[in-house]
Amino acid sequence: MTWTVVPEQPGSPVASALWRAYYTEVSDRWYLLHEGRRTDPEELEREVAAESGADLAPPRGRLLVARYAGEPAGCAGVRLPPGGPAELTRVFVHERMRGRGGAALLVRAAEDVARAAGARAIVLDTRGDLVEARALYSRLGYRETAPHNTAPYAEHWFAKRLG
């Protein structure tokens, strides 16, 4: 089986389904850890609807979708602010597709998009409980840095120079 990674419009049905899966997983994980419950369905619908993904539409960003054997399996976004570092966001692979190299492929594809747009560095933030994500970023050459934003759930910040 093989992976492919291609740009996708943020509002497409595939992108919307991946955003819902991503948000459900990270939200449920936070609530289970901190409150012993899953995300309230009304909150889930409100938060999913509030994020259009417009920040990942060209020319200021890109949403990439990974498919495994043709099936949508994951995504990664890259924001491309003018004059600043690129920002990696929404890195996600469906649980049933993990362990097959898709996450690293998505991150590298996002780095390629950032390089092609002229970015010399890429940054990201993540939560403390997302230990798999932190391990992935470290393995791919990202280094923890001082905070570069004040995002509400950000607990760890990473950066990588793009050669």
From TrEMBL:
Database matches in SUPFAM superfamilies: Acyl-CoA N-acyltransferases (Nat)
Domain of life: Bacteria
Record lineage: Bacteria, Bacillati, Actinomycetota, Actinomycetes, Kitasatosporales
Annotated ranges, domain N-acetyltransferase: 17-163
Alphabetic keyword roster: Acyltransferase, Transferase
Protein's organism: Streptomyces tendae
Annotated protein name in UniProt: GNAT family N-acetyltransferase
Xref: InterPro entries: Acyl_CoA_acyltransferase, Bact_Acetyltransf, GNAT_dom
Pfam families, per the entry: Acetyltransf_1
